[in-house]
Each structure stands twice: as C-alpha cells, then as structure tokens.
Amino acid sequence: MSVRVCRALLGARFPVHAMAFHPSLPVLAVGSGRYNGGYFFEGELLLLDLETGAIKSLIEDYYGGRQVLGLE
Hints:
A four-stranded antiparallel sheet has the order 1-2-3-4, with no helix packed on it. It contains no helices and four strands. Strand 1 (16-21) and strand 2 form a beta hairpin. Helices cover 0% and strands 38% of the residues. It has one domain (1-72).
C-alpha cells in the first residue's frame, strides 16, 4: 500500500491554466489568469520551491494585462 502526502498547497488568486516542472531543479512553474470582462487580463506566474514550499510571484503587478495560459 502506498501513502500519498501533500507536499505543497498553492493558493492562487486566479484560475490555474498551466504547470511545468523544471528539468533539473525542484521547482514548479504555475501559470494562472483570467479575463476581467473589460479591457484587461489578470494573472500570475508563480514559482513553487518543492523542497521548502516557498512561492515567488514573477509578475509584480498582476493587473497589468497578464494571463499565463501555457508553460513548457
């Protein structure tokens, strides 16, 4: 019997559209966003350190027209 453990919990402000693991580092990139119904898109590009659980946003102002739909 295998036991599954939650290693990290990410609370994104917007719907998550894409995730990609770094090929050699314990890092997960998470792209999120949405259309706000007007002229702008809102979103974030987050880096999650899988060893420490630390999260870093790579877009300072997420109201500046950003939406991340895909990652490689």
